[in-house]
Amino acid sequence: QVQLVESGGGLVQAGGSLRLSCEASGRTFTTYAMGWFRQAPGKEREFVAAISWNGGSRYYHHSVEGRSTISRDNAKNTLYLQMNRLKPEDTAVYYCAAQPQGRAAVSGTYYTQAARYDFWGQGTQVTVSS
Predict the structure, then answer these.
(1) What end-to-end distance do the CA atoms of the chain give, in Å?
(2) Distances (CA, A) of 84 to 19, 95, 119
(3) Nearest 10 degrees: CA dihedral of 113, 114, 117, 120?
(4) Which of 42, 44, 49, 65 is the most exposed place for a label (fewest CB within 10 A)?
(5) Cβ atoms within 10 Å of 31's Cβ, excluding its own
(6) What is each CA distance from 76 to 6, 30, 72, 84, in whole angstroms?
(7) Contact indicator for 60, 47 with CB cutoff of 8 Å
(8) Which residues pair with 22 in a beta bridge?
(9) 44, exposed or middle or buried, with CB in 10 Å at 0-12, 13-18, 19+?
(10) Do the Cβ atoms of 58 and 66 come closer than 8 Å?
(11) Are 52 and 35 in contact (CB under 8 A)?
């Protein structure tokens, strides 16, 4: 089992940047593929970005690709999402999630599917003003 705690959200103007962090408990962080998802009011939770256990594979939703970077520091048990050139449509609660790396390795699409993830954080609010 792993517990996840997000931080780094806040209010930012359009065009600004934020770095989200997700700290994981336990000693098994490297056995998990990690992902970021977001949910805006009235909308379904959607995939944002994901990363394999060693950072060798990374996936992005087309809406954030090119202006966001997912990374992880396994020594610190921490996942990051650097978001640049933020837009009002990026406003949402952002969640980090973990799934066993062995499952994610079956297919690249597994990284993008919320149902494949076993553990979730409580979320951090990102609000982008226009």
Answers:
(1) 40
(2) 9, 18, 26
(3) 150
(4) 42
(5) 13
(6) 14, 11, 8, 23
(7) no
(8) 6, 79
(9) exposed
(10) no
(11) no
Residues in the chain: 130
- Each residue's pLDDT tens digit, 19-57: 999 999 977 999 999 999 999 999 999 999 999 999 999
CA distance 16 to 21: 17
Both structure tokens of 21 = 């962090």
Residue 27's pLDDT is what?
76
Residue with tokens 């990690």, as numbered in its chain: 34
